[in-house]
Amino acid sequence: MKAVSLMKLGDLENELKARFPNVDFVFSNGLSDIDDKDRETLEILFGYDGKLDESFLKQCPNLNWIAWYATGVNNLPLEYISKHNIKLTNAKGVHAKQMSEFIFAYILDDYKKMRTSYINQKNKYYDSSLTGSRLSGEKILFIGTGSIAQQTARIANVMGMTVMGVNTTGHTIEGFSKIYPINELKEALQEANIVINTLPETKDTIHLLEREHFECMDHNCLFINVGRGTVVKEEILIEALKEKLIRHAYLDVFENEPLQPSNELYQLNNVTITAHITGNGNENKSEVTGIFEKNLKSILNNNELIENVVNPLNGY
Predict the structure, then answer these.
(1) CB-based contacts of 54: which residues, under 8 Å, 6+ apart?
(2) Which residues does the UniProt record annotate as the domain D-isomer specific 2-hydroxyacid dehydrogenase catalytic (predicted)?
(3) Where in 71-211 does DSSP place strands (E)?
């Protein structure tokens, strides 16, 4: 069995070779580094390269499993993968740890007025009357109740916050005091002080949030998006911020990335921007490789995947 990587893994490469001596591993620097012979003979493709497309997959006639080292699979040629019965797994759960920390970094930055303190520092202005707000008792709503939301909910509960969520059916999730079905999204938004989108991109989530949803939010609401930027049209989000339908937004994802210097979001004073970094973590490669190893062992022993299996038709 030949397994070809889409990225270098450092010391993990020797560990994989030692643990699976019967697997022919080839470690590359990405698509352009994989030669024709390896493309024709590989059975497993693992790692991450944002350039992976249908054209490349057509050159891999023996491919039966893609172990994707990211959580989002929306940019992969999912229709082709499904049609050719190629198995697909992702890195779900790994990024949730650092993403939950980022989410609370955003919240605390806002509630404790850290941005204002920094501005005061730059202006050499000492204001000891500056007063932040407590998180205890605040109502936090997650649009999407997957691994990111669940990890963050644990922290929110420790902070004494009321944790709510929205998912497809309204099914209960441990750690959430209330779950709304997606058809009651407007009602859910009216209840929250903080709204966080953690949804992946699928055909059902693109432009899910419309102007009327921001109108449902309290004008003092904090909106955080670490899911996908396509959940709302950019012009609608800009309107909501300019018209103060919401107080502030922390955005790590955008409808069109990378965000161009001319983008109007840069001009608004009630938005904080990070460059799609909440999923970045030094531990990612090691932890995702751990998932890959479990699945590889199962494939070799039982010809089945046991963790983070993705349905290409659903996108999750």
Answers:
(1) 77, 80
(2) 43-306
(3) 87-89, 139-143, 162-167, 178-181, 194-197
C-alpha distances in angstroms, 38 versus 56, 72, 99?
12, 26, 35
Q: Which residues contact 37 (CB under 8 A, 6 or more apart)?
A: none
Q: Which tens digits make up the pLDDT trace of 145-185?
A: 999 999 999 999 999 999 999 999 999 999 999 999 999 99
Q: Which of 54, 75, 74, 60 is nearest to 26 (CA)?
A: 60
Location of structure tokens 């953690």:
198
Phi, psi of 70 (to 5 degrees): -135, 165
- The CATH code of domain 2-93+282-302 reads 3.40.50.720
pTM of the model: 0.90
User: What is the residue extent of each domain of the chain?
Assistant: 2-93+282-302, 134-273
Q: Do domains 2-93+282-302 and 134-273 have the same CATH topology?
A: yes
* Closest listed residue to residue 229, CA positions, set 245, 251, 246: 251
